[in-house]
């Protein structure tokens, strides 16, 4: 991607790995500002508002990987699996400053991922997923010390929003999900919940729920291409197929039927592109 880069604050329901190759950039994540150097890698829990502020007078190159952690379940459930998602779960947002050999290895893995993605065939998609799991192990290994020494706790508001999101993880697909139910089970007023959730994440609770449902629909279509659109719609808590189809097209850009057709034609099954892309972008 080349040309002018228009930074905007945004959030999303998937996770993000951001790698800074070159340029001048301050990255704003929530209330934190990171001045980046080549080799900086940022782990992002996407629902926190974030935005790169770049200097347009110099070339700006970064690689972004978007993903839904649902695609990693098979790897995390293997015997003696490494808990490589722990840095995302514990830190939420975190910067690794990679230098020398670590920088070279990260760029090598990202290059391999990009090569496999560009193949556009089932073998390439499988190897892309394996290379991505290798990247997550690489990141986990370099987060071991900070994970052990982390003593900080989030603010009360952030902790409450994390509790809400954790609760929603098990309930987001329920058809009768409502603010009244959330209020009753979490023992917090609807107005307070709505206020702090929007303040911390930049989205309303039901914007989050619907984004989460659509992302999960994309994963289901990828991993279970035989599922009908109607079945996926009802499985994810939509009362009406038309509502599901409208939201899917708004968020993804194509109808569920067309998305399923694209999967069949492309043979895409990595699950990385289900929630975003492996993307190297340039702006100058």
From TrEMBL:
UniProt keyword annotations, A-Z: DNA-binding, Transcription, Transcription regulation
Highest taxon of the lineage: Bacteria
One Pfam family from the record: AraC_binding
Domain HTH araC/xylS-type: 162-262
Region of interest called Disordered, as start-end residue ranges on this chain: 264-284
Database matches in Gene3D superfamilies: Homeodomain-like, Jelly Rolls
PANTHER family in the cross-refs: ARAC-FAMILY TRANSCRIPTIONAL REGULATOR, HTH-TYPE TRANSCRIPTIONAL ACTIVATOR RHAS
GO molecular function, one term: DNA-binding transcription factor activity
Organism placement in taxonomy: Bacteria, Bacillati, Bacillota, Bacilli, Bacillales
InterPro entries to which the protein is assigned, alphabetical: AraC-bd, Homeodomain-like_sf, HTH-like, HTH_AraC, RmlC-like_jellyroll, Tscrpt_reg_AraC-type_HTH
Keyword Transcription regulation: yes
Name listed for the protein in its UniProt record: Helix-turn-helix domain-containing protein
């Amino acid at each position: 991607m080349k040309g002018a880069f228009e930074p905007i604050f945004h959030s999303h329901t998937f996770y993000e790995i951001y790698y800074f190759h070159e340029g001048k950039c301050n990255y704003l994540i929530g209330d934190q500002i990171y001045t980046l150097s080549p080799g900086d890698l940022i782990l992002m829990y996407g629902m926190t508002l974030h935005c790169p502020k770049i200097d347009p007078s110099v070339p700006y190159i970064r690689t972004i990987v978007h993903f839904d952690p649902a695609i990693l379940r098979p790897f995390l459930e293997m015997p003696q699996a490494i808990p490589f998602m722990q840095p995302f779960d514990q830190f939420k947002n975190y910067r690794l400053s990679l230098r020398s050999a670590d920088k070279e290895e990260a760029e090598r893995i990202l290059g391999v991922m990009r090569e496999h993605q560009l193949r556009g065939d089932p073998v390439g998609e499988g190897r892309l997923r394996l290379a991505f799991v290798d990247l997550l192990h690489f990141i986990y290994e370099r987060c071991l010390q900070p994970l052990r020494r982390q003593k900080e706790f989030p603010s009360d508001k952030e902790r409450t929003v994390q509790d809400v999101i954790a609760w929603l993880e098990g309930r987001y697909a329920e058809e009768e999900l409502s603010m009244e139910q959330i209020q009753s089970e979490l023992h917090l007023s609807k107005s307070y919940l709505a206020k702090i959730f929007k303040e911390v994440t930049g989205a309303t609770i039901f914007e989050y729920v619907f984004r989460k449902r659509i992302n999960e629909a994309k994963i289901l279509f990828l991993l279970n291409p035989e599922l009908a659109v109607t079945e996926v719609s009802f499985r994810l808590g939509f009362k009406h197929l038309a509502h599901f189809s409208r939201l899917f097209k708004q968020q993804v850009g194509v109808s569920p039927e067309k998305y399923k057709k694209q999967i069949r034609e492309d043979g895409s099954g990595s699950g990385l592109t289900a929630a975003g892309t492996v993307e190297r972008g340039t702006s100058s």
